[in-house]
Structure to design on (328 residues):
């Protein structure tokens, strides 16, 4: 039998954690033949709730789940970690300025980056879900100098999946018929969901839909503001869909993208498409053998250029702000 893969989940007692852990333990993260060992990290006040979730995980009798440990200390939680899912974060509360938000999250992601650097497995892969996800990933990455920068990623797969769903409805096709969707930039309202390179049944999606007004006034804002619409409808933020996207992100990273398709991941920029080197920005990426690569050579027209630049500028501002705060 295979050696279990160690997966650390932070914010394990939160609502995404609750939707995520059962899918990891049932084999959806890494595959139906890969045993997992869970390490859960929470703040001390939420450890008891995490213990409750662990009791339920026990009660599922998942054959692939080979153990669960719960921690309130990051150094211990990331010991030997192969896959780190950083979900816990400090939400923005009323009256909180952006600087306060970045600072509060720096207090979480700096020590977690240090802990990953100190104790994670050599092959560690990190996905940051907690917002502001791209910049939190940048903070963690900059405190893990011994871990290759490309192992730190942030989640835009939920935005990618939302874009697939919207386009499939508009075009009256299954999401499975759509390939090469792209989310560019920041996981925020400035993100740019790009259908100009997407394909529906092998044909260009933008040409197939041929409705620029829908694209500008419906598709892009609907995808970018979907998080707020879910809160409005559900009275709570996206949880099961966010967990599902996190599963997809890691599964694709580990198992590879299909031929003729790609996915969206926020990854450290090498300067591709004019995105400043070092920013953790969403790109079209292919994956193979546990490694990602930014898709090269796509033509970017003025419409797309302006939107990519706006989102990337926001990322640069966030980076400058956390630099000023001494967080990177
Ligand atoms: P919850 O507030 O339900 O859960 C967060 C959990 O994190 C809490 O249990 C809290 O105790 C824990 N936590 C706080 N600080 C911690 C620390 N230092 N170490 C370990 N655990 C800690 O939030 P939930 O709805 O689960 O959302 C989690 C994060 O995901 C939020 O930051 C949210 O904004 C973000 N999201 C990101 C998305 C994305 O696409 N990238 C989409 C969904 C979601 O909004």
């Amino acid at each position: 039998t295979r050696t279990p893969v160690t997966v650390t989940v932070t914010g394990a007692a939160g609502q995404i954690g609750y939707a995520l852990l059962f899918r990891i333990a049932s084999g959806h993260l890494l595959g139906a033949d890969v045993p997992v060992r869970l390490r859960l990290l929470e703040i001390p006040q939420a450890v008891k709730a995490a213990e409750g979730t662990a009791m339920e995980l026990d009660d599922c009798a998942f054959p692939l789940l080979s153990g669960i440990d719960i921690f309130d200390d990051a150094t211990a939680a990331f010991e030997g970690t192969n896959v780190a899912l950083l979900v816990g974060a400090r939400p923005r509360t009323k009256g909180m300025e952006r600087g306060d938000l970045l600072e509060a999250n720096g207090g979480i992601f700096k020590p977690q980056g240090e802990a990953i650097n100190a104790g994670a497995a050599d092959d560690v892969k990190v996905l940051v879900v907690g917002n502001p996800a791209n910049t939190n990933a940048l903070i963690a990455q900059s405190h893990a100098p011994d871990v290759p920068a490309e192992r730190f990623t942030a989640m835009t797969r939920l935005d990618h999946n939302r874009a697939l769903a919207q386009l499939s409805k508009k075009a009256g096709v299954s999401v499975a018929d759509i390939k090469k969707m792209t989310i560019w930039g920041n996981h925020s309202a400035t993100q740019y969901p790009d259908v100009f390179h997407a394909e529906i049944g092998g044909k260009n999606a933008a040409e197939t839909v041929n409705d620029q007004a829908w694209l500008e006034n419906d598709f892009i804002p609907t995808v970018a503001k979907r998080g707020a619409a879910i809160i409005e409808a559900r009275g709570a933020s996206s949880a099961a869909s966010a967990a599902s996207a996190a599963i997809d992100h890691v599964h694709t990273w580990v198992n590879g993208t299909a031929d003729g398709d790609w996915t969206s991941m926020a990854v450290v920029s090498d300067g591709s498409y004019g995105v400043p080197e070092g920013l953790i920005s969403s790109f079209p990426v292919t994956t193979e053998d546990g490694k990602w690569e930014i898709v090269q050579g796509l033509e970017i027209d003025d419409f797309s250029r302006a939107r990519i630049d706006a989102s990337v500028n926001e990322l640069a501002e966030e980076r400058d702000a956390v630099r000023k705060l001494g967080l990177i």
Summary: The pocket of NAX is lined by residues 10-11, 13-17, 41-43, 46, 87-89, 91, 108, 129-131, 133, 155, 158, 187, 227, 237-239, 242 (CB under 6 Å).
